[in-house]
Amino acid sequence: MKPYEHGGNVYDYEGEIIDFSSNINPLGVPEWIFDIIKKVDLTKYPDIKYRKLKEAISQYVGYSQENIIVGNGATELIHLFVRAFKVKRPLIPSPAFLEYERAVHINGGEPIYFRLEEDYGFKVNLAKLLLQMEEADSLIIGNPNNPTGQAIIREEIGILLKKAEILNIPVMIDEAFIEFMKDYKNYEALPLAKEHDKLFIVRAVTKFFGMPGLRLGYGIGSPSLIQKLEEYKEPWTVNALADAVGREIFKDEAYIEKTREYVNKEIEYMLYTLREIDYLVAFDTKVNFILLKLRTGRVNDLKQILLKKGILIRDASNFRYLDKSFFRVAIKRHEDNEKLIQALKEIDIKDLVEDKERVVI
What we know:
Elements: E1 18-19, H1 33-38, H2 51-61, E2 68-71, H3 73-84, E3 90-94, H4 98-106, E4 112-115, H5 126-132, E5 138-142, H6 154-167, E6 171-174, E7 199-204, H7 205-208, E8 217-220, H8 223-232, H9 240-249, H10 253-274, E9 280-282, E10 289-294, H11 299-307, E11 311-312, E12 314-315, E13 326-330, H12 334-346
Parallel strand pairs: 1-11, 3-4, 3-5, 5-6, 6-7
Antiparallel strand pairs: 2-8, 7-8, 9-10, 10-13, 12-13
Cofactor: pyridoxal 5'-phosphate
Protein name: threonine-phosphate decarboxylase
InterPro entries: Aminotransferase_I/II_large, CobD, PyrdxlP-dep_Trfase, PyrdxlP-dep_Trfase_major, PyrdxlP-dep_Trfase_small
């Protein structure tokens, strides 16, 4: 199996790096988190049922604890869904988060891919997706989708779920980035979990709350679905530090609103300024990252030039259906975003042409 690369791998590079490859809350973690961590008793196992953590999540999402499962980041829960439902032929709108297909391949399956068309702004064509669902044994959707930044409104998700019920197939919706959206309530699938027994909604605490190193995710579904997942889940995958922080993080409403306001203001700034750069195409986005395309040349050359300036971007060419001209950048603090914009403006287009002599760095 080929290696699956992700953003955030700053460890391959030396020196100070501004990491635009990882889509994390630019405001960082709330300061009070460190006081919580200092008080954690590491001599005890976490509660194997994570009752207090689930209670905190319950109050945040409006579902009871029997509807909730927690995991070591959203990634564990993605793999758990595939394993528990013995998913072999999921339909995956793509380009998409690479762990969807990796989880399927690890479990001996082969995904079916629904191509998100560049000419359509990488948005989902609902009619075509509904038709292709008939070939699959499940449906896996990123909403909002990584790396395209596009999302499906809840009404359309409801239509997909009705089709899934007719076909009797499970559906996983990855909402790891949904809380960054200004109008997220029009897109989140949470209200639909009450009506659909085979719907599993995955979320990542560590993206929105800026602490990917802590590894914490959770999922919502019907009691029967959650029970099935628990039967396949390893114990204690959420450590005591993540457990303790997770009990408090959802209460910080000021941080949540500040993040959403800050990120959406920066999205507008980034899209406007990036579109002033002639050699770039900046696609619309609803979340804290932007998919871009070079009008000429290849991203690897751009990446190497920017690394010399202490900036790391996400080469998106290993996403299905994207080629060597695509890359992704995160929304960071305004001063960092300005540095990226300035660095991109300073690049000589001649350094990106296809036939120039390559320099290996």
